[in-house]
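Run log, item B.
One chain of 381 residues. Sequence copied directly from the ordering sheet:
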Amino acid sequence: MSLSLRLTGAEVLTPSGLEDTPLCLSDGAITDETSAREVDLSGYVILPGLVDAHGDAFEKHLAPRRGAMKDLDQGLMVAEAELAANGITTATLAQFYSWEGGMRGPDFARRVLESLDDIRPRVGTDLRVQLRFEISMLDDYATIEDWIMRYAIPYLVFNDHLPHDLLAKGKTPPGHVGKSLRIGKNPDRHLEDIHALHAGMKHVPAALDALCARLSDLPVRLGSHDDTTAAQRAAWDARGVHIAEFPETAEAAEAARSSGAPIVLGAPNVVRGGSHKGNASALDLIAMGLCDALASDYHYPSMRRAAFLLADGGLMEFAAAWGMISSGPAQLLGLLDRGTLTPGQRADLVILDAKTRDVCATVSAGQITYMKGEVAARFVG
């Protein structure tokens, strides 16, 4: 059930910046005014709910130990609770469809999609999915097209995690035996399959051209992942793959910007002060104007921390920094009904302690998904 409330006393992030102004909610939306019950939130800040365009931290809840992957619905419910506790009101769960098998394999991906369909009516957070497809899997292109329609997948990203340099030299990838055994596959057979995928890469460009052309008529957004060169980004753009996720170099990010492709960077990269893999620094790319959205990647708390770091460090005004985790990703995903606290928008908001910046409450479409402490007392009182 959605709330009908008039929230007063807090600083509210409006299009003009932080203001001490009432915020009204009714029927799941932000309204101009309401006669509903008033809640005093003096000492708190009300901000647009976080919109995560790419996150895979949910995986740890689906398999807390090796082989413990039976009750995916329960794992997803716990993941949703973690999302809400971090102020995330719209989450894009980045699920692999990969030759790597195990939690990244096609069978597991299907189970996740089916479990998501089951639990969505039982949770408040808007749980969306991004399918991360390995382009070397030529035999699976038809399946991907079918799944997009069957499971209403709104976002498809193309990956290529094959170690091509090593395979071209006839070398075995590091840790191959252990990885094979973890997914229950004979290492020799797994290596043969990987080599076969590598050998088939010459057929991939034409297959991608055809697949993307067919997908252009479907309501699915397409993205590339880990681009390193301008040529790569240009090739994706020609196919209608217009979102650039985590470009690894300034060259690739600049190419994306020149073509108008939205750019997603990782919030943990901002918090760490650089990429853990030695790629381009998100801070540097942001300073160059080469970012439209910050995603949680593998760590949900980093989104909020990154926004404050950008504002506190003087890299941008607070409203613009918070837009990197709210309105920016919302626009990138085509979700024009959220991302700002303006009348008519979804009542997606997060309430922070003004001093500690801790998340004290999260509201998604007017429904409480997380609440604690003094804020909870004020709502209940």
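Observations after the first pass:
- Residues 72-85 form the longest helix (14 residues).
- The chain has a mean pLDDT of 94.
Flagged for discussion on Thursday.
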